[in-house]
Amino acid sequence: MEFSLVKDNVADIRSDSVVLPCYEEPRLPAAARKIDRTLGGFLADKAKLSDFKGAFGKTVLVDTPGDFNTKTVVLLGLGKKENFSALEAFRAANIAVARTGQRSRTISVDFSGLDKEFLGVFLEGMDCGAYEYGKLKSSGKKKNRIQKVYIASRKISADYFNTQTARASAVSKSVAFTRDLVNDPPNLLTPSILAEHALSISEGSEYIDCKILGKEEIREMGMGGLSAVSFGSSEPPRFIHLSYRPPRKSRKKVAIVGKGITFDSGGLCLKPADSMRTMKMDMSGAAVVLGSMKAIGELAPGINVHGIVPATENMTGASAYKPDDVITALNGKTIEIINTDAEGRVALSDALSYAVRLGVSEIVDLATLTGACIVALGLHNAGVMGNSSNLVKSILSSASNVGEKMWELPLDAELREEIRSRVADVKNVGSRWGGAITAALFLENFVSDVPWVHIDIAGPSYMEKTSDWYRYGATGFGVRTIVNYLTER
Ligand code: BES
Ligand code: ZN
Ligand code: ZN
Predict the structure, then answer these.
(1) Residues 211-257 pLDDT 10s
(2) Residues contacting residue 309 through CB under 8 Å, at least 6 positions apart
(3) 77, 130, 309, 322: which is deepest, by most CB within 10 A?
(4) Is 422 among the residues known to form the active site?
């Protein structure tokens, strides 16, 4: 999607569709009133007929007569101005594209009423809204046809616009990359193929190196957790380490770590068929790490960033790890396996230990870790837990900057006893209660005293239906927060 800034009134731009964002206010915005006058009051009539008052997400589509500048006029409700934030900006942009994409090659948007601080997320929303996963259909034709977007505003400078478009394009490309990885079926996206994607990121950027460990190296290094999870699969595991070094030297080092289970059958503690479906998405954390590294390579922030992914399937083969097994993680801690379906935390134990060894000053992990987090927060919020309230705060603030919903859960010390083992240092599952929290408390054993935040993205990573502002399948949730976090400091 190509964006250009236009200083004219949006009514004077020639394009297939014009989008008129409207706050919930008594009068339509000036641009809408101007268009309404040319249409002889037809737009206002239609708005009245549809009871359009600017409520968030509500739209009115009007087909115009042949001699008009555009074929379609869209009123797009933004809700109350005082409630408007990055979340609404991102979603409204998604809706704008969903409503006009099938009928337009070019669209123009009246941006004159919106604060310029929302330009970036709005552009990201438009780009992300046009995402389609069509590569496995033999009749592969894109439904969304939008190629060019004119943003009409007199209040935005060309410089500001150019920085925002460049950034939004880099971010959206990375979100699309992440969504593709998650949407790819598990027979076509194995741990080794995921590793090849990581390699391609380092090949595409002069600032990024990539190290891949294979099955033997993983075992020899002492990564007992990742090894154990991989034993039941005939696909070999991979340990992926991408490192970004900034153009100008910096001492600050951050690690982002992502759960990379390319398919979670549950292992010997096999999932029932209904819960096993969609478990190709259990590498969403890994996909966010790869997507974020790709964006970081383009945006080149001034800090060192390590992207770390333990990648494996969780299967039931003859050598599969079993309940009662005790394994040793890279940091030397022993883990009693209670349930082989709590495999993500077991694989992450090594990845977090590895991050600590790198000497990073912060660790952020993303994982589709627990169904319990979905029970607690629903599908639309990620759960955030950590050992540093400052780091938790910065992550939550980045999430709100970009309009991704995240909510803190307490890392409740009282629940630590739930995962105390009688035979080993820790066990991989506690009781039924507080499952998202006990999972995080398990991970805590492997981060030493490094400031760390865990983001459980089990809910928002993958949607099983299409709504106004998201589409069936992978969402890429997390990339925009992480990129904001790593670049806005
Ligand atoms: N990958 C799942 C968690 C999950 C569930 C992600 C639903 C996305 C949607 C994880 O490995 C898992 O199976 N967790 C178990 C843990 C249990 C065995 C303690 C769960 O949540 O049921
Ligand atoms: Zn599992
Ligand atoms: Zn899992």
Answers:
(1) 999 999 999 999 999 999 999 999 999 999 999 999 999 999 999 99
(2) 194, 198, 238, 239, 240, 241, 257, 258, 260, 285, 286, 289, 290, 351
(3) 309
(4) no
